[in-house]
Amino acid sequence: ADYFSCIATIVYIRKENCLYQACPSKDCNKKVVDQQNGMFRCEKCDKEFPDFKYRLMLS
User: Fold this and answer.
1) Would you state the pLDDT for residue 15?
2) Which Gene3D superfamilies match (predicted)?
3) Which CATH number characterizes residue 29's domain?
């Protein structure tokens, strides 16, 4: 596998929709679905969690 380093400067961050509610599992970044019962479901992990992690969306 090839590896490289990159130095970058962020010049713009969108104010709307820049964060999303993601699965709290260590190796998963999938968006969770609010089950409306205090639980959040990750379709990738096929599990429900009482919380989530906010993740920054970069594109």
Assistant:
1) 82
2) Nucleic acid-binding proteins (2.40.50.140)
3) 2.20.25.10
Domain of 39 in residue numbering reads as 1-59
- Between strands 19-22 and 53-56, the pairing is antiparallel
Residue 23 exposed, middle or buried by CB count within 10 Å (0-12, 13-18, 19+): buried
Q: What is the pLDDT of residues 1-49, one digit of tens each?
A: 899 999 999 888 888 888 999 999 988 989 999 999 999 999 999 999 9
Total structural domains within the chain: 1
Number of Cβ atoms within 10 Å of the Cβ of 6: 4
Contact 42, 30 (CB under 8 A): yes
